[in-house]
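Record type: ASSEMBLY
Status: queued
Input:
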Amino acid sequence: MPRKDLLDIASLDREEIEHLLDQSAPFKDLFTRSVKKVPALKGKSVLMLFYEPSTRTHSSFEVAAKRLSADVTNFDVAQSSITKGESVRETIETLQAMRTDYVIVRHKASGLPGTIARLTRASVINAGDGAHAHPTQALLDAFTIKEKFPEPAGRKVLIVGDILHSRVARSTCTILKKLDVEVAYLGPGSLVPKQGADKVRRFTNYNEAMAWNPDIVYLLRVQMERQDVQYFPSLREYHKLYGITDARLEEIRKRGIYIMHPGPVNRGVELCDAVMDYERSLINDQVENGIAARMAVLYWLKPGGV
Amino acid sequence: MAQTLDAQEIAAGVERLAAAIRERNAGKPIALVGIRSRGDEVAERVLKQLAKDGPEPEFGVLDISLYRDDFEHLHSNPTLQESDISFPVDGAHIILVDDVLFTGRTIRAALDALSDYGRPAKVELAVLIDRGHREMPVQPDYVGITLDTRRLDHVWVSLERTDGKDEVRITEKESA
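Status: finished
Output:
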């Protein structure tokens, strides 16, 4: 059964998740053809409504929509009336009049995409809202993991970094748990939430976390722009305690562990330069898979209410 | 009243298809491309027949879901399967293979899909069953079985690998 909107991972059931992951593979196959475009969404319009800057997610959605032959309009926030004090509701009414079929929203306020979804007949895809959710990131991460581990249940993923403020950690952890993947967090005590009911292990020490034997180490981006409050002493200190240093990369290589990162990477903070050439780095796979996963989502959603 | 074809009649249809393709293309390199789902299974069987007494043709599988023209009318979009065409399409002599030819819309979509892989020198169409009632200017070059049906009849094809048995059933539908 298709849905109108994709707002978070939590509301998807296992069957829907498996469907979207399975569908991502044939979309990825299209990328090797001479013509990478298919006519499935010909004549449909996709509106990119980004209230927060994002080069990667924005361009990934744009490429995905264009490869499905949809028409893409960018609602450029810096130039739009949003800065003139137009309310979200007014913006949506304008968009409704434009008869947009799909709206892709990023906003710093958690829950805003859900509000927009209720106000419009268009399908709304959440491209990141505050610290709440980033569902397409979770889908592309799970798809990337399934390419390496077709039966991911029981595999171990260690998520490293600012867990507290990360919608990537939240959404990716949610999807992995739905696939019965074991998840653990590693980060400074100030950035790892207290033990909750979700049974996710917490580590604050790198060596203890590695003794847990993860199959994949997933590094979160240190959000330089959100460091108005100091959660750790310095970037150099962060790298030393939680980053993938040259010495740690050697150990990771010996143990055959995969490395993932949602990008963009802060070199010398989350990881050292050598990780970019590491044969088990999945960072570039994540970029390519992001387009395929987003095509699968666009193809699955049905605008107009179901 | 339901009309049926059994496994033997289906096998004879495949045989006729293979014989016609063999006769017209003796010694020439051809490629069979089966349309999912079930066209690929028909193509595999024809390929097996052809390989008995000649060079094995190239083989590919095409999923045309993304090229359909009826998205607006569907409650949910068709589940996509992988296409697999590993030979160079440019300059190839391709025979598209499907189980049933009805309105011709699937073939229209398949031609569009195929052209995104390259520019074949020639494309022909082979169908196990031609049941008539075209809505597009599409005609088959090779036919296994011709069935006389009414527009609203349903033709249900089951094949061993896909459905567990070989059978064709034609059921009448009361016109609304």
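Annotation: Strands of chain A lie at 45-50, 71-76, 102-107, 123-129, 156-160, 182-186, 201-203, 216-219, 258-260.
Annotation: The mean pLDDT of chain A is 91.
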